[in-house]
Amino acid sequence: LTSGGYARLQSDSCVFVKKDLPAGKYSMVFVHVDDLFHVYSDDESNDQLCAILRERFQSINHETGDHLQYLGLTIDIDRDARSISLGAPGYVGDLLAEANTQGRAATPATDELFTQKEDAEPADKKLFASKLMKLMYLATRIRPDILQAVTVLATRMHACTTHDMKQMDRVYKYVNATKDQKLIIAPDTLDFKVYLDASHAT
Q1: What DSSP string runs through 17-28?
Q2: Whether the Cβ atoms of residue 174 and residue 152 lie closer than 8 Å to each other
Q3: With CB atoms 3.0 to 4.6 Å apart as the test, which of 15, 22, 68, 81 could cross-link to 75 if both were Cys?
Q4: Digit-coded pLDDT (tens) for 11-27
Q5: Cβ count near 2 (within 10 Å)
């Protein structure tokens, strides 16, 4: 990529930006192991990148369009609505099947999530961590609605109990009830708003 005129961002070593493009044009490449995601302004930029890659690797798998799959995610672009929806039906299906999830829940948690029961029996730490990290992967990518519950459960990982496992099973039941839910991104501006916790540094 660098020999083809791309520069690696100092802030993220997995992102490359094409240098010296005319005003209004852009070409950005996001790298994950051997998978690339290309965001570009015009077909010429995409053709040039493909030529660079084919010169180096001869054969590449190349997919374009408004309906894509990348790292287990489905990406659907609605140009009329100026929106992008992200889903993970395969990952969610495998997650629920592996956990043998039965039943559904209307919410990811109840007030019981914040209750620690000292008399509860210890849970299998390895199983708890495995189920938790699978939820964390989903939460941090396309399901912010379960992120609070998953984050709270993460604080219990090293001393998890059967009560905590029950709370996690509820999150699984909620995901089962909402397994077709997607994250829809439809911004009306490209302005970023950042919020900081003033007490975080202490």
Answers
A1: EESSPPTT--EE
A2: no
A3: 68
A4: 999 999 999 888 889 99
A5: 9
